[in-house]
Amino acid sequence: MKFWAGLLAVCLTGAFTASAEDAVTAEEGSMPDAMQHLVTAPEIDFANLRDPFASYLVRVASRGQSALLDNKTRLSNREREKLEDFDLATLKLVAIFSMGGERVAMVQDGTAKGYIVRRGNHMGKNNGKIEKITDDTLFLVEQVLNPAGEIIDRQVNLTLNEVNE
Length: 165
Description:
A hairpin with a 5-residue loop joins strand 2 and strand 3 (114-117). This protein is α+β, with helices and mostly antiparallel strands. The termini are far apart. It has a domain at 56-159: SH3 type barrels (Roll), CATH 2.30.30. The chain has helices spanning 2-28, 33-36, 56-74, and strands at 92-99, 102-108, 114-117, 122-123, 128-133, 137-145, 151-159. The chain has three helices and seven strands. The mean pLDDT is 78. The strands form two sheets. The protein has a four-stranded antiparallel beta sheet with strand order 4-5-6-7. It has a three-stranded antiparallel beta sheet with strand order 1-2-3, with no helix packed on it.
């Protein structure tokens, strides 16, 4: 019986020491081993969060439109030409000829009024600039927005249509 009483005393003393060690570690503020590896969440700025229900394309388009307007204001130091008021679809290439050693073209608007243009002239609403004039084609480069909202150069050709009678 003394054996069992001694064994019980040793077990109880070990239990008390273990709980005393746990109390000391809890008092020191250390976390259990499983809690030490937890990561804290980053700070979130709720005022500047994007609306998840708003269309991304609208946001990109508005950013592209503002970039296009900035580009137009940067280029606004030059005087706008008369043909920049017309859409290219309404203009028609009617003649290409040589004048003074350089190629020039004649373009008609919707009212059949003719305009003479040279390499370097601007025409069309998208800031189109004439790059080259060949025997039957006028090559322009326009600045337009792509679907991502970036300004890109687009090649546009006006071709001379021959009328066979």
